[in-house]
Amino acid sequence: MKTLKDFLTVIDAQTLIVSVLAIGSTYLCLRYGLMADIPTGLIGLAVVFPIVFSINTAYKRREAALRYFASLKAHAMSLYFAHRDWAPEDGEATSAHRNSEHRDRVRGLIEELLTSLGQYLAKDGRTAKHLRAMFDVFSRLSTSHEALRAAKVPPNEISRANQYLSKIITDFERMRNIAEYRTPVSLRAYSVVFLNVFPVAFGPYFATLCTKNEAFPSVGYVVAVIYSLVLVSLDNIQEHLEDPFDNIGTDDINLNVLDEYRDVLAL
Known about the structure:
Elements: H1 2-8, H2 13-32, H3 41-86, H4 100-121, H5 128-150, H6 155-180, H7 185-201, H8 203-212, H9 219-242, H10 258-265
Helix pairs in contact: 2-7, 2-8, 2-9, 3-4, 3-6, 3-7, 3-9, 4-5, 4-10, 5-6, 7-9, 8-9
């Protein structure tokens, strides 16, 4: 059932429209005697190859986004553990007594970081307001390093904490670029145009199939629908992979991870 449900996610109104156009084109060609044995390899060269190339590129972008997200979470937890263990109470240079107030403050900042990240990368959240909220969290995390300095934590350890924060910001900017930019726009426009033109342009070929198969004269219409279904589905798959953060496709990245990390941050 899950496989069928996932398949249905790539079937939409465009699939129906293109299928109807292909059937209409086939009917008109049959009615007016427009027959042609068009080479089917033309579809693979002009439509399928560019779409598959775009799907591969979009999938690589999604995999890169997953790596950056994993790195961001790992460095965020490393930064939290550093502040939890390196900031002793009463200024003593030992991790035996943790500064609970400082620990809770940094934990709250990490939780806010994960929340703000999900809000910014959401499809409707890429605004200056949410971007400012992200960098406000980064700023307060950077200020928190002063507590380590006041606790006489060695400079090399403070430098390491700064590196953790730098990695978090870098990973965020990489994820932001993936959210803001797309695969080649001209290639996408080309694919969309020919995707909608080909099922109609191949009407004479589908009509020829109807006349050649007396036992099954409707085969041309069936093939027209199958062609439309395959081409539009490939385009929809690419469209769903294009933005891995918009929660439209089944392969989108789940950014709502605060609940599963809240228990870890309580350690």
